[in-house]
Amino acid sequence: MDKNIRIIEIKQSVFAKNNVDANETRRELKDKKVFLVNLMSSPGSGKTTLLNALINELKNDLKIGVMEADIDSDVDAKSIIDHTGVEAIQLHTGGECHLDAGMTKVGLDNLQSKDLDLIFLENVGNLVCPAEFDTGACLNATILSVPEGDDKPLKYPLMYKVCGLVIISKVDTLKVFDFEVEKAIKNVHFRNPDAKVMLVSAKTGEGIKELADYLREQVKAWKGN
Amino acid sequence: MDKNIRIIEIKQSVFAKNNVDANETRRELKDKKVFLVNLMSSPGSGKTTLLNALINELKNDLKIGVMEADIDSDVDAKSIIDHTGVEAIQLHTGGECHLDAGMTKVGLDNLQSKDLDLIFLENVGNLVCPAEFDTGACLNATILSVPEGDDKPLKYPLMYKVCGLVIISKVDTLKVFDFEVEKAIKNVHFRNPDAKVMLVSAKTGEGIKELADYLREQVKAWKGN
After folding, report:
1. What is the DSSP letter of B116?
2. Which residue is closest to B98 within chain A, CA to CA?
3. Which residues of B touch A147 (CB under 8 A)?
4. CB A43 to CB B156 under 8 A?
5. Using CB atoms within 10 A as the burial measure, which of A157, B29, B125, B157 is most buried?
6. ipTM, 2 decimals?
7. B76-95 residue pLDDT tens
8. Residue A1: how many CA atoms within 13 Å on its side-chain side?
């Protein structure tokens, strides 16, 4: 039996099983009226810093929980708790480069807050593997930080295909880097014409309110009221 | 049979086979007196831009070839050819998040230049998976760009453990970001006490000559003269 074909079969069966689990998670979230956002990006694009700013903008009218995935460290969950006061748990992937639906479900079952409206899942910093695994989230979002360059959607196609929301971050540094916002948006839409693109800076606060408003609308639509 | 145990066995057997292939590649490179550098980093940390600056510093006294790995696009190999004139080929991973020894060997066999002294392999932008696969390179190097933050070695342990050279890049932007160089170096050495750390800016040219000198010494030592 050809070895390559065998490897592909294993991988496809992993994906098929994962998709079943992810759909089941989404059905449960719909029943409970909880909106789960899967936030992905490169390492160091500012996921945690953005979440802190965003949660402080949203926490007065939505009950929020956070799941921080990391290979090894605990610094992100601690940062969320220190800066926002909402419940945050750390998921250690044990060296794995992504979260799948099963690991996400373990996280959801371990959140202790009741009646959450919105849960953020901060995935492992990686533009490749997390895009391959449906976590069961209601919205996939990715951050493209200005220092990374406006060509990233060309180089990591699947990440941009699976994300309904693309957040261009660190826009306060546009003066320092050769990053053309229009080109970046064009590249995003080349991969996914339906993606919503928003510009923010967690440092200056630019765009945070608009992003919070957008998420508020998404939560409302998901809850069906 | 427990399903989890079976998955681990497959993975370990993949690694074992890969290590055999990588060691074979390294032996061949030693015989041919060719030094192969496996350059890894997050997406957007500036691998290609740094390579362009570095190759222009080195190309008068060393014969250089470049293998650019990417999931889909061809922009990096084109950039190297346009900016340096050395031979560069693009390796498409077909969605894969890393290069292994077998893919690297295919690349090496496809370089057409004869009597190369130094080959750069630019791996897929990813701090997790490429660290797991020995490519057969003589030196593993990673870039930590200032905008990513000084905590990356804490969050991506294996990448820093396997790299003998850590290049802190985009140091011209130190004034814009909360990045402490001393803390970054301490975090690198926490993961790998023997790692050589160098600071560069491809934009201003700072540190490029020193990095080129360091690589020149490594090539000389590898060739045994």
Report:
1. -
2. A128
3. 44, 145, 147-148, 170, 173
4. yes
5. B125
6. 0.82
7. 999 999 999 999 999 988 88
8. 7
